[in-house]
Design brief:
With 204 residues, the chain is an all-alpha fold. It has helices spanning 12-31, 34-41, 45-51, 55-78, 84-101, 103-119, 128-149, 157-177, 186-202. The relative contact order is 0.11.
Length: 204
């Protein structure tokens, strides 16, 4: 009797994520069809559910992958040999570039949040986005602490942690409000952060 060996597809999870990303961009969350994703990936629909519990989980994994890539780029920039002020601008510029490149995907985050709210789920229970948010904010805070370390006086570390989070939120806001002009506002945000550090340090 002939034994049929299942077809092994290399890196199938990333393949599903890549195809799903295009479908979410083109059709939105509600109109994205899991069967169409399976057809394009040339797999059975059941294979998708082996890797992802449902469509919401698949979408959240797409978002998580985007932010993981952004975090890796930002951490690499933070390790470069350069002036801290320059590193701060480069990090914020990278954040803007990545967000504006995929704004259509990030906009869907709000749509998923609305769906969860309607169904009575708590989106905050899912940590995919919040973990990357915290890590990016911490990377920005490390640069701010280096800038503060070169100034007279002393700013409490927790204040600089909050400032890193504030910087992240400001970048997100400008990207969501007007992605076309977001990049031009980075120097203004960086100057605002540095001015706050300098004035706070001198007042200690």
């Amino acid at each position: 009797m002939e034994i049929i060996v299942p077809k092994i597809l290399p890196d199938i999870q990333n393949r599903i994520l890549a195809i799903a990303e295009n479908h979410f961009k083109d059709f939105g969350f509600e109109k994205t069809d899991m069967r169409q994703i399976a057809t394009e990936a040339e797999i059975a629909i059941g294979t998708i559910y082996i890797h992802f519990q449902n469509k919401e989980e698949l979408y959240l994994q797409v978002i998580e992958r985007h932010w993981r890539n952004t975090l890796e780029k930002i951490e690499a920039i933070s390790k470069q040999e350069a002036d801290e002020k320059q590193l701060l601008s480069l990090i914020l510029q990278q954040l803007v570039q990545d967000m504006t490149d995929r704004k259509s995907v990030n906009s869907l985050w709000m749509e998923v949040g609305a769906i969860h709210h309607q169904k009575g789920f708590d989106l905050a229970e899912n940590k995919h986005f919040s973990i990357k948010h915290d890590q990016i904010s911490q990377t920005i805070s490390k640069i701010l602490k280096k800038i503060a370390g070169n100034k007279p006086g002393c700013i409490q570390p927790d204040v600089l942690d909050q400032l890193g989070n504030f910087a992240f939120v400001m970048v997100v806001d400008v990207c969501m409000l007007d992605p076309v002009t977001a990049a031009s506002r980075i120097d203004l945000i960086a100057d605002l952060l540095i001015t706050f550090i300098e004035k706070s340090g001198s007042s200690q």
